[in-house]
Fold:
Amino acid sequence: MNEAPDAVHGLRPLSLEELGWSAAFAAHVTDADAALRPARVASVYSAHADVWLGGTAVPRMAQLRGRALRDAPEGGVAVGDWALVACASEGSEDVVIERILPRRSAFVRQAAGERSEPQAIAANVDRVLVVTSAEGDFNARRLERYLVAIASSGAEAVIVLAKADLAHDMNEVLTEAAKLAPVVSTSARTGIGLDELRALIPPGTTAAMVGSSGVGKSALVNALLGRSAQHEGAVRAYDKRGRHTTTKRSLFALPGGGLLVDTPGMRELKPWQAGAGGDDDLEDAFADLSELAASCKFSDCRHVAEPGCAIRAAVASGTLDAGRTASWEKLEKERGERKERQGVFAQLQEKRAARSRAVALQRRLITKRGK
Structure:
């Protein structure tokens, strides 16, 4: 396989370690994989993906084997996944993805629309940067949804306030955001906070940037890359909301050595309980309420009309935001409904896997008889 630098892009080749490869991933490579090579997924297109091989300067297109798609981790093949690839044919530079390795973290949501199934947005990330515009897009309730999803991902959450130079009352927005998670105030236009943002993505680490359309993700990506890699769209004047300009999830190598996943704007986010956080996703995202609820008189308090409810007392005294409490209760209800859907989805997946195993066995028997 040709591993020369890409002269057109003028980018230097990256080693596997710079792409995030570690002993933890290498431990999943068996003797049976001796002829395969590790590669990092940079973009996904149905049955194909762009992958980054060690010693290359830009990703290359690879075909996904049917079994790699079928046996992929929860939510399907995602940007940031580590794969094992083989040459498509002897002497060819084309590669084929044979297997997706187990993940150490994954930001997963329920697929958009009415489908009750998981969708992996980014895998093997150290931090998820939730971008929101300080100019007019700030919405604490929406941010809480992201934080619940991140709590179950195994990654660290950071809120990025974009367009800080345009905010009417930056201190108020910063104070509200800081109640939820660590915050970085930024402006792609003036350079505010970019060094602080770069410091969150040092060499050997991967961050994923998520958020609504028009909040300034693409502008921040371009500023961090030092080049115009993502198209920046206009924002509607009347509601400060933007349209989708990023159309696919992509993995970029930053000049400072870190890796960044950019994602299209999300119109909706329904957390999908998964990953390292498990049942603790809400407890982690709403640690203040979980701690307060432990002081309720009854351990099974529903925080509705029970006597001695610490949650209702805090809301009545003004020390707890009623909107945050309502958001917590709504997400708790959704979690219960989600668990039911996940049970149905797991049963469906097992039936599909059983059918696939039966078909594979039948094919092997037919092939054996033919010989």
Summary: The mean pLDDT is 84.
